[in-house]
Design a protein that fits this description.
little secondary structure, elongated, single chain
Length: about 160
């Protein structure tokens, strides 16, 4: 299978599909995954800076320690995804489904979460105070950093 990049580069990977693929440690800077089905794929420690993943199905993907700086994840489904320890500053998660996702120790400096579903997510992120969370929804199962007030940050609590 071929992975295409916004730079016109192409990367051949030894898979017929990227569902459940091991893409750990790869340089995927500006890769194009928009609208693709990538559920259960592992991106551990991969460089996904500026990657285009809008509308992609990334449920249960492992992005731990990955670089998602300036990545485009609008309207993506990241249900149950593991982003622990990732760098996601300036990342766009607007209208994404992050329900049940693990964002523990993720640096989300100036990241966008408007309209995102954070139900049951672990949001113990670094630099959360600089992220735009206006209009993001959460519930009682969502875990926030101590002394962080999601209502003051513009989040909407749902049952």
């Amino acid at each position: 299978m071929k992975i295409l990049f916004a730079t016109d580069d192409v990367l051949d990977v030894p898979y017929d599909t990227l569902v459940g693929a091991n893409l750990n440690g790869l340089n995927l800077h500006r890769a194009i995954f928009e609208g693709m089905d990538l559920h259960d794929t592992s991106f551990i420690s991969s460089d996904l800076r500026g990657a285009f993943m809008a509308g992609a199905n990334m449920n249960n993907c492992d992005f731990s320690r990955a670089s998602l700086i300036t990545a485009y994840l609008m309207k993506a489904s990241l249900r149950g995804a593991n982003l622990q320890g990732a760098k996601a500053f300036f990342c766009n998660f607007n209208d994404a489904d992050l329900s049940g996702a693990n964002l523990n120790d993720v640096d989300i400096h100036d990241a966008e979460f408007s309209g995102s579903n954070l139900h049951g997510a672990i949001m113990t992120c670094r630099r959360i105070e600089s992220a735009n969370l206006k209009g993001a929804t959460y519930n009682l199962s969502t875990i926030w950093p101590l002394d962080f007030d999601p209502i003051k940050a513009g989040c909407i609590k749902e049952e």
